[in-house]
Sequence to fold (413 residues):
Amino acid sequence: MRSLTGALRVAAGADREAVRAKQRAANADALRSTLGGLKGGALKAGQLLSTVDSLFPADPDRTWATALTDLQESNAALDFHEIEAVIRADLGTDWRRTLTDLDPSAVAAASLGQVHRARHEGRNVAVKVQYPGVAEAVASDVAMLGWMLRAGSVVARGLVVPPVVAELRIRLTDELDYLREAAHQNAFADAFENDDDVLVPRARLATPRVLVTDWLDSAPLVTVAASSDASLRNRIGQLYQRFLLSAPTRAGLLHADPHPGNFRLLSDGRLGVLDFGAVLPTPGGMPESFGRLIAAMLATDSVDMRAGLMREGFIKPGADLDVARLAAFLAPFTEPARSEVFNYSPEWLRAKFTGGPDDPRNPDYAVAMKLTIPAEQLLTHRVWLGCVGVLCRLRSTVEVAPELRRWLPGFSG
Fold:
């Protein structure tokens, strides 16, 4: 309907670019309002898209980027009386003795819960409260999962997003358990305690639906993306990438929700890390199979590449696979890995994913599904694609190959 209305306005003499800009704003606002209101898995899918906003069509007035950023930082919160019912059920009727000075206005509203500021045992804390009924909604809303699959095709059909969406369906139930999240958060806090570059706030109290953690005075990562200070964007980009790569080794856990709303800039220049609901245990570090896949894809000759993929078990013997197309599809994974230092940008990412026969939205890209991808790599693919998307948004120039050699078992490129 918006497209037809726009066409009629242009036919009537309206300025074409002005009409297009108005349509972009209306569509972006509809996306933001719909996903922000749906909560649960649909909003989680939107936040996933926000990590790779460079893949959306040209956006000169940044209406899409702004809408996706809002999904990270400013979704509509529930009225406090609805949230208080959850707090009372989990902490008891005298919960105000445990949480003092709780601000009824939410400071953030995420996909599965919202956050309020309070005091606990003399500390400033963030209180994350799960939305009432969200667990039941996640378990039963099959239509939501269908939307997630369709939303995934906006980014890339074939290899990356469908496994990510399937993994989201499985992992959402884990994210609903705040006791599990608190244990993971404190494991990260232990691993990065007294770190010069990264700060993980500790969980102080947890029930299945209420999580109390140390408060972080910080700025969202999107403020770094908007900075004209290239050195700041490069440094924070390097810390962001290093945290995602190093945590499996340092903490034995993979932080599997890389969207920028979970990462903050502290006043002392450190990277703050939030939200440990989506976490994958990685005893021994990042899965070696992921490093071997990236290493095999670094071959510049398609024959050598096929041989490497077959040697590592990623291609079944006799499979009919267009390796050149597969290489183009995986360029966002492999091209930076060939470089000691790589300059990420939205333009580079968009060029890798859009236009011509190598557009991953082209149905021919089902070739990627012919790879034999180990189940353990479902989240590593999500994390790496998200990492690339955020680094492009930051326009960061960072070391890549040295970090992969240091933190990625199986990679020796």
